[in-house]
User: Fold this.
Amino acid sequence: MDVEKSKQAYAFIQKEMQLHQKVCIHPQGYSMWPFLKEGRDSVIVKPLPVSSMHRGDIILYRRNDQILVLHRLHHKNKKDFFLTGDNQTKIEGPVRQKEILGVVTTIRRKKHTFSRFHPLWLLTSHLWLLFRPIKPYIAHLYHKIYNKGE
Assistant:
């Protein structure tokens, strides 16, 4: 998403979050691949108190007052959040509470809907964070197997 579109989306999302409304977002890019895939998935983001956000949750935040980002919560302290994309090894942060817009509560994938409390979502979230240091090797192996017939 370019910066101008992101600014427009931010204004709309920020307004909806202040009204405690849910917002549907279609993720773009590959930082949350394979959990979220552009063109396949949409997510519902809801404003929640930071006290109810936990390791593994997918957080929507605004990076550097410009780009909207969906990344997974790696850890937090009293005032800062540290996040990572599922397709990344780097931990981003500190992200300030004021930059956080909401948390993904639901994923829509084709005809299926998954809550953030779905057992498969929870298992995948925790495993993916655990495997963070070796994700590039997992992705390479996946591509090698997946693209074998091409």
Summary: The chain has a mean pLDDT of 86. The chain has one domain: 3-146.
